[in-house]
From TrEMBL:
<keyword id="KW-0813">Transport</keyword>
<feature type="domain" description="ABC transporter">
    <location>
        <begin position="1"/>
        <end position="231"/>
    </location>
</feature>
<dbReference type="InterPro" id="IPR003439">
    <property type="entry name" value="ABC_transporter-like_ATP-bd"/>
</dbReference>
<dbReference type="InterPro" id="IPR003593">
    <property type="entry name" value="AAA+_ATPase"/>
</dbReference>
<dbReference type="InterPro" id="IPR017871">
    <property type="entry name" value="ABC_transporter-like_CS"/>
</dbReference>
<keyword id="KW-0547">Nucleotide-binding</keyword>
<dbReference type="GO" id="GO:0005524">
    <property type="term" value="F:ATP binding"/>
</dbReference>
<dbReference type="Pfam" id="PF00005">
    <property type="entry name" value="ABC_tran"/>
</dbReference>
<keyword id="KW-0067">ATP-binding</keyword>
<dbReference type="GO" id="GO:0016887">
    <property type="term" value="F:ATP hydrolysis activity"/>
</dbReference>
<protein>
    <submittedName>
        <fullName>Spermidine/putrescine ABC transporter ATP-binding protein</fullName>
    </submittedName>
</protein>
<dbReference type="InterPro" id="IPR027417">
    <property type="entry name" value="P-loop_NTPase"/>
</dbReference>
<dbReference type="InterPro" id="IPR050166">
    <property type="entry name" value="ABC_transporter_ATP-bind"/>
</dbReference>
């Protein structure tokens, strides 16, 4: 996936806001990339552009050789799980298949297999309000995987969870996406989460959102499970380095 000189301005009746300016980077196939930055720097806007939901004012975004659009095969996992409360877990995880017109015995079996791999086989006939927050996010992960997307977009998917659940789910998501060799882009406020999960971290500066720096996470951290990565002796050095850069942004904005 490639972003080339992407800028986006929001126009309201009162004012024009340049939310993003000259954003250029690429994400390699199978790479896990995080976008980090202070509130209002344009992270969600950037993710919406990558998803094809917003069209950049200038520049372009391509996946393979094609410009990304809202119909590109991209999966989402968001802070809220957005499961439909009146549908069973099975109906929720197969809904995307039905919408895309690819629902069949084979694709349904694959979705149920994911549910089983993520430890929720016995929950398929329950409704979302009968599950814990962590389980619901696992269902959201299954729903995303069921349509076999080319790329996964994760917008703060762990931030509403308690700390223990969050750490466990980070490992599960990381392991699953790596096993499937999926390309993933994560938006987060959390420096430690970005380091623990990613191959690279893009730090945005605010007003307008620009690339401040792209950090390469050393392999011994990037390739380890997030929980193990957090225990690594050089993890804290990475944290301090990115923390200082974020602090410098806060003091200049
Ligand atoms: N629909 C909109 N109309 C006008 N301005 C907008 C709109 N959405 C976002 N903005 C502005 O664009 C800028 C970037 O917003 P965005 O939500 O992308 O930032 P963010 O980094 O995701 O913030 P946060 O971390 O707080 O969620 C902000 O100045 C915001 O006020």
């Amino acid at each position: 996936m490639q972003l080339q000189d992407v800028s986006l301005g929001y126009l309201t009746k009162r004012e024009a806001t340049l939310a993003l300016e000259s954003i250029t980077f690429s994400v390699e196939d199978g790479e896990f990339l995080s976008i980090l930055g202070p509130s209002g720097c344009g992270k969600t806007t950037l993710l919406s552009i990558i998803a094809g939901l917003l069209t950049p004012t200038t520049g372009n975004v391509t996946l393979g050789n094609q410009t990304i659009t809202a119909t590109s095969n991209i999966g989402y996992m968001l802070q809220q799980d957005y499961l439909f409360p009146w549908r069973t877990i099975e109906d929720n995880i197969t809904l995307g298949l039905k919408i895309k017109g690819v629902y069949s015995e084979t694709t349904k079996a694959a979705a149920l297999n994911w549910l089983s791999q993520l430890g929720l086989a016995d929950k398929k006939d329950l409704f979302p309000n009968q599950l814990s927050g962590g389980m619901r996010q696992r269902v959201a992960l299954v729903r995303m995987l069921a349509t076999n997307p080319s790329m996964m977009l994760l917008d703060e998917p762990f931030s509403a969870l308690d700390y223990q659940t969050k750490l466990k789910l980070e490992d599960l998501v990381f392991q699953t996406l790596k096993k499937e060799k999926k390309t993933a882009v994560l938006v987060t406020h959390d420096i430690a989460e970005a380091i623990a999960m990613s191959d690279r971290v893009v730090l945005l500066s605010p007003r307008p959102g620009r690339i401040h720096h792209i950090f390469d996470i050393p392999n011994d951290i990037a390739k380890a499970l997030p929980f193990e990565a957090r225990q690594h002796k050089s993890f804290n050095d990475q944290f301090q380095m990115i923390w200082k850069e974020m602090e410098s942004l806060a003091s200049t904005s």
